[in-house]
Amino acid sequence: MSQQLISHVNPEEYLRLERQAEYKSEYLNGEIFAMSGASREHNLIAGNIVAELNQQLRAKPCEVYPSDMRLKVTATGLYTYPDVMVVCGEPKFEDKYVDTLLNPTLIVEVLSQSTERYDRIAKTSYYRTLDSLD
Q1: Contacts for 113 with CB less than 8 Å, ≥ 6 apart
Q2: How many degrees, rounded to 5, is the angle at CA 85 between CA 10 and CA 46?
Q3: Would you say the C-alpha torsion 87, 90, 93, 96 has a positive or negative sign?
Q4: CB neighbour list of residue 67: distance below 8 Å, 6 or more residues apart
Q5: Domain residue limits at 79
Q6: Cα(78)–Cα(121) distance, rounded to whole angstroms?
Q7: Helix (H, G, I), strand (E, B) or coil at 27
Q8: How confident is the model over 94-131, as pLDDT tens digits?
Q9: CATH number of residue 113's parent domain
Q10: Which residues does 44 contact at the CB level (< 8 Å), separation at least 6?
Q11: Cα separation of 43 and 68, whole Å?
């Protein structure tokens, strides 16, 4: 996670603020954290993964989402933006806004030096609580 912006808000308030924001933020345990921008290399890797997955899954009932699709990890309350997500079958969303996915089949995080430890340890443990990843 990056710099903490606001603490002690509920998920509904986070979503209200996030849907109006000019930048992306993560949410966990009542705290909102600003996400830093990605490097050129990070964007190239994520873009290539999205392109390849789209090619590989073209004939399957799957959708590939880049990093602008928010994920909610229900068991932990984490809201985040993985670099790439895939959902095969019927996607499930949190609400009528259809901007928060609940059931990814695959999550890809492109590691960077600044977030590697958090992504490998904390986020991975949060993601492992998703039944859709089994």
Answers
A1: none
A2: 110
A3: positive
A4: 24, 38, 46, 81, 82, 83, 84
A5: 4-133
A6: 14
A7: strand
A8: 999 999 999 999 999 999 988 899 999 999 999 999 99
A9: 3.90.1570.10
A10: none
A11: 12
- Cα(4)–Cα(14) distance, integer angstroms: 13
Strand partners, 68: none
User: Residue with structure tokens 């994920």?
Assistant: 71
DSSP state of 74: T
Number of domains comprising the chain: 1
Q: What is the DSSP letter of 18?
A: H
> Could you read off the pLDDT of 41-70 as tens digits, one per residue?
999 999 999 999 999 999 999 999 999 999
Give the DSSP H/E element, type plus range, for residue 73: strand 70-73
- CB 105, CB 132: distance < 8 Å: yes
